[in-house]
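Hi R.,

Here's the chain you asked about this morning:
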Amino acid sequence: MAELTGNVGWLAVIAGAVISFLGGWLWYSPLLFGPKWAAGSGVEMGNASDMPFGAMAAQFAGLVLMSWFVGAGLAVGALSLVVLGTVAFGVLAYSGGLFTKKSLYARNVDAGYWIVALILMIGAHSVL
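And the predicted structure, written out as tokens:
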């Protein structure tokens, strides 16, 4: 268990998750990819009061876990393993999009978000 918790910067873990969550808000917003992603995913974009709380909470929990994964990997000098794991998650998200018949655009937006989140988390861990 020490390899998962030792030398992990917990402030960076939380900051990486929060920054990635906010990055996802922008990524999926009408300012960037939201409307076309929503159409390709078969969902309707609503206002802030329509957001599904359970999905948002699960997303944040997943981002905390991913940021912890990044922090643990960086603590032991395994950045390439972190990148490989994140690419694997992106491919799995892409395959899930195929199963749910999302458009190519929506699948690319979802998979691309994994890469953006990884970059934001590595940045948070590098600064804090």
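The mean pLDDT is 92.

Let me know if you need anything else.
M.
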